[in-house]
Amino acid sequence: VQDGETPLKFPFRIWIFLFFFISGATGLIYEVVWTRLLTLIMGNTHYSIATVLTVFMSGLALGSFFGGKIVDKAFNPLAAYAILEAGIGIYCLLIPSLIDFTFPLFQWIYLAIGDSYTQASLARFLVCGTLLIIPATFMGATLPVLSKFVSQDENYIGQDVGTLYSINTLGAVVGAWASAFIFMRLFGIKATISAAAVANISIALIIYFIF
C-alpha cells in the first residue's frame, strides 16, 4: 500500500482488478460471438463485423458518458458495478432468443425492401444495433463506475485508472483470443455466450453477497 492510500482499499483493489479483467474478457467474447451471429442476418461477414464494431464502440462511448454522470451523483460505485454486470450477463444470455424473436422482422425487411440492397442493409443494421446497444452501453459504464471506486486518493488517480484500464484491456485480449480459438470451437456459440453471461452474473452476486 502506497502512502496516502486508505488501508481498506488494497484487498478490495485486488478483487476489483480481477473482476474487471474477467469483465474485459467477457466483453470481447460477446463481440466475437455477436459477429458470428449477425453474419446469418446480414448475409456478409464484413457487414456483421462493421455492425458489431459500430454498435460496440457507440455503446462504450455512451456508457462512459452516462456512467460517469450517474456515479458522481452520490451513487455507490460498487453497487452500480454489480448492477451493470448483472444487466450485461442477463441481457447477453437472452440475445440469441431476441434474435430468434425478431427473425420475422428480418424476413419482412427482405420481402418488403429486398429490392434495394442499401435500404435493406440499413434496416438490418438498425434492428441489430437496437438489440446490441444496451449491453454495450452497460459495458462502457463499468470503467467510470469502477474508476470512482478505486481512485479515492487524488494523488493516484492517473495510476489507479491507468492500471484499471490496462487490466480490462488485457482481459479483452484474452477474451478475443479464447472465444475464437477455444470456446466456440469446443463448445459452440450458445455455450460460449452462456459461459460469459454466467461469469458476469457471478461477479454481481459475489459483490452483492460478500462485499
Features:
mainly alpha; disordered N terminus
Main sheet attributes: strand count, strand direction, barrel closure:
none
Mean pLDDT: 88
Q: Please state the structural category.
A: mainly alpha
| Estimated share of beta-strand residues | under 5%
Helicity range of the residues? Answer: over 70%
Number of strands: 0
- Taking pLDDT < 50 over at least 5 consecutive residues as the criterion, the unreliable ranges are 1-8
Order of helices and strands: HHHHHHH
- Global geometry: elongated
From the N-terminal CA to the C-terminal CA, the straight-line distance is 20 Å
What is the radius of gyration? 19 Å
Number of continuous helical runs: 7
